[in-house]
Specification:
With about 375 residues, the chain is an alpha/beta fold. Helices cover about 30% and strands about 20% of the residues.
Length: about 375
């Protein structure tokens, strides 16, 4: 593993010493190399195996340190959710100023289920200007349970979403992908519209495409969010999905053995695990899906990944404030992120009553987002006192 420091950070800089000390804490052998160019010096720290192997550690341990420009591997690691030397959990960078993960404040992601031309701009503007939300969600492709339900606007929806996010200075955009070509399309549109923030693709509950998961393993420059499947019986469902992203695309020899040379590119360990509810067993329940918030406790004990909860899908309705009640219950499990559908005014823009073309019943009204912020702020204040 090679750590490159930022330009201008010299060999005797305290930030170099901090990286060396961190490496020693993980029982590695760090070697500092420096080269002086015409204008600036460049420092690299080569990490050699000690009592701990570099293949057992994630790059995130060093990426987050002050003065580090990038971290690259020389050999491919085998990464799992349950190992990897991440004693205190992985912190994932959503934007230059926002990290999520164990020990950090819970963050809010909000926005419409699907994007449409007339409302996405006002929704994003309202969430930012009125509530200071800096991470939004929105769908271009939606895997609906019925072929006659609105499936989203596709690439046009992604373009509208990223344009609105860029216009309002949003740092992070979450959007669902269903097929491998969606990843390419999102990256292309991001470049075309000049959006400079972070895009987080997610794999939803109705999508279990192994090829898509492996393809996301190649995209290690951005985070990936994985939701549990509707039929999941426990956290192993998320572990199985994550394993494909962590491994990335693998190549095999004719004799069935792994081609290590062609499979050198590391998978993506910038993974967020999202609990969104499972098939309910009680048909009389008011909830659309059975909330599985309690799985957060198991995930925290067994894995290093940040944990999100989607309270909108498990509630399925705003009737009797069910989404808000679900948020309150979710926060009891010390989660890292809430992802909430909403942002339309209660009566729709212009009093039209329109609240989206998809899952309008569970859309949280724009005027009431202060209630969510208050719950999360109260949770974060209590958490800091522990």
């Amino acid at each position: 593993m090679i750590i490159q420091m930022q330009a201008g950070v010299g060999k005797s800089d305290p930030r170099v010493a901090a990286v060396v000390e961190k490496a020693k804490q993980y029982r590695l052998n760090p070697l500092v190399h420096s080269e002086q160019g015409t204008h600036v010096g460049v420092v690299e720290i080569h990490l050699k195996d000690g009592d701990m192997k570099t293949s057992a550690l994630s790059e995130h341990i060093f990426v987050a340190l002050d003065g580090v420009e990038n971290v690259r591997r020389v050999t491919r690691p085998k990464v799992t959710l349950s190992a990897n030397g991440m004693r205190d959990g992985k912190h994932i960078k959503l934007s230059p100023s926002t990290l999520i993960g164990a020990g950090l404040p819970c963050q809010i992601v909000a926005g419409p289920c699907t994007v449409d031309e007339k409302t996405v701009g006002p929704i994003v503007k309202g969430l930012v200007t009125e509530y200071g939300i800096t991470a939004i969600r929105g769908g271009g492709w939606k895997p609906r349970s019925s072929p006659y339900s609105f499936p989203g606007y596709g690439e046009r929806g992604i373009r509208l979403l990223l344009n609105a996010a860029g216009h309002e200075g949003i740092g992070t955009v979450f959007t669902e992908v269903m097929e491998s070509q969606h990843i390419t399309a999102v990256a292309r549109i991001k470049q075309e519209v000049g959006y400079t923030g972070t895009v987080v693709p997610w794999v939803g509950a109705r999508t279990g495409n192994p090829m898509l998961l492996s393809e996301l393993g190649k995209q290690y420059e951005f985070p990936v969010m994985l939701k549990n499947s509707i039929s999941a019986k426990g956290v192993d469902d998320l572990f199985e999905r994550a394993e494909r992203v962590l491994a990335g695309p693998l190549y095999w020899n004719d004799d069935g053995t792994l081609d290590e040379k062609r499979s050198m590119v590391s998978g993506n360990d910038n993974i967020i695990l999202c609990l969104r509810g499972t098939e309910k067993t009680d048909p009389k329940s008011s909830y659309r899906f059975r909330p599985n918030h309690d799985w957060a406790e198991t995930l925290r004990a067994r894995s290093w990944a940040p944990i999100a909860i989607d309270p909108s899908h498990s509630a399925g309705t705003m009737e009797n404030d069910l989404v808000l009640k679900n948020i309150r219950a979710a926060l009891q499990h010390d989660i890292d992120m809430l992802i909430v559908e909403g942002g339309y005014p209660a009566k729709g823009f212009g009093g039209t009553g329109f609240r989206g073309l998809c899952d309008a019943e569970q859309s949280f009204p724009l005027e009431r987002f202060g209630e969510i912020l208050n719950l999360v702020s109260e949770h974060n204040r209590a958490f800091k006192k522990q």
